[in-house]
Amino acid sequence: MYELIIIGAGPAGMTAAVYTARKKLNTLLISYDIGGQPLATAGVENYTGYQFIEGPELMQKFEEQVRQFPSDVKIKIGQRAESVSRIDRGFEVWSDKGETYQAKAAIFATGKRPRQLNVLGEKELLGRGGTYCAICDGPLFAGEKVAVIGGGNSALEAAESMIKIAQQVYLISLTPLTGDQILIDKVTGASNLAIFLEHEVLGIEGECRVEGMKIRDLKSKQERELRVNGIFIEIGLIPNSEAIKGLTSLNRLGEVEVNCANETDVPGLFAAGDVTNVPEKQIVVAAGEGAKAALQVHRYLQRLK
Amino acid sequence: MAREVKIYTTPTCPYCKMAKKFLDDNGIQYQEFNVAEGKAAREEMMRKCHSLGIPTICFDDEVLVGFNEAQFREKLGL
Question: What's the pTM value of the predicted model, to 2 decimals?
């Protein structure tokens, strides 16, 4: 039995692992991928110590630091936690590979994943012009017409990268733009950008690949068809909390409820990062929360002795 | 017999780097096509693999989109 299982290897999980390694806790870090959401972040300009760094590069630095402690932190990548349950003196984690792991304490740090539009054509045309990863697929649409859906930072970042290479970019948001002003300033005014605020997406069209989409003005109800070859869906995120649903309290958004010490309402089960109800979803915040959770786990295990 | 592996990438794609690292670490030879460099590779990817998602990986005639280590292992018999 491990002393601690950390589920998720994004900024929160990896920072927690560094802290528990330094406390010499026998730790298992299990995750589907290593790096989490920053892997799909083109540039990070607000992680203190770096004026600019690419998300994947920052996560590689996190990983290198975790891998400094191979005797304290065992790492299993490529496995998704399917469920977490209480057992005598701890917790048991079932992975999607049919493996089970036990530990005295757990930190749940599984982050978030892209929210889907849930419109006709979205599923069918995913990977055929429809994408949730602008940093991956953006260059495919150089010289073409594309749409970016969303009004937050991710959507603005996608729009910013696409106005440099696409023939025409449409930015479509249900609400006024909600991202950082610095990003709004970067995109507005571009000659090849058209912004449709308070518009909803009705459907994505195309036979073998995306050929267009239909949108509707929320106020006037007027519908409009846009001919595009690429659609970048950046409408926010939903928490990856399914594995502990029923074990501990989730809020109405599905986020794990924690107190300021990262404790859930189950003794020994802690949570950190974007999967929790902590308000700001930032790499630096998630890393700090991971550190806090790890230190709390150390105190919890000392009390058990 | 070793499978013919082709991977279609863009320079900015982190999952492409992860996929190539996995192939390198396991000694798998592959051909890489940077689809950001021109339309020809993009069109070939669309024609042969019916995909516009990056990374697209062809194991002989079988196609995967995205990097999933378990699926890679299955396709390569690792």
Answer: 0.78
